[in-house]
Amino acid sequence: MMFGQLSHELEVNVLASEAWEIYGTLGISKLLVEDGSAFEKIEVLEGDGGNGTILKKKFMPGSHGFTVHKEKFTKLDNEKRMKELEVIGEGYLDLGFTLFRVRFEIIEKDNDSCIIKSTIEYDVKEVAVANTSYANTDLVAKIAKVTKNYLIKNKATENAA
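The line above is the sequence of S-norcoclaurine synthase 2; the predicted structure tokens follow.
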């Protein structure tokens, strides 16, 4: 087995609570499908966005080495503004990963800005070490950027009103 960990951080000039309103709910799924840059479809198979929620995500063609995976929310802490999910079917698991976990944290920086921190942890079978290149921060960086753009746009709209 080979273990790896990667992380990505993006600063956003909005309140941490505003960013968490998106990340801490299923609202982020809707936002990502509407954006169309990463996911073609996200289907809730079980749950309401809390612990135990299972999603089936269909990626945009050619964006990954696979088209679909299932993931489960394993931790959701509104107080710490942290959500953790694990791939439980298809996708990374078909590529030889035995664990693929993503943790999103919204970290308050000051009164009007926060950091979206995304951490990926994975285990991959020795025979599939060549597939570790699929474990990268491209997708979590894209998710953070889409969220940032949405939050900044909404903030500008509110300020103009």
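Note on the example: The chain has one domain: 2-160. Residues 2-160 form a domain with the Alpha-D-Glucose-1,6-Bisphosphate; Chain A, domain 4 fold (CATH 3.30.530.20).
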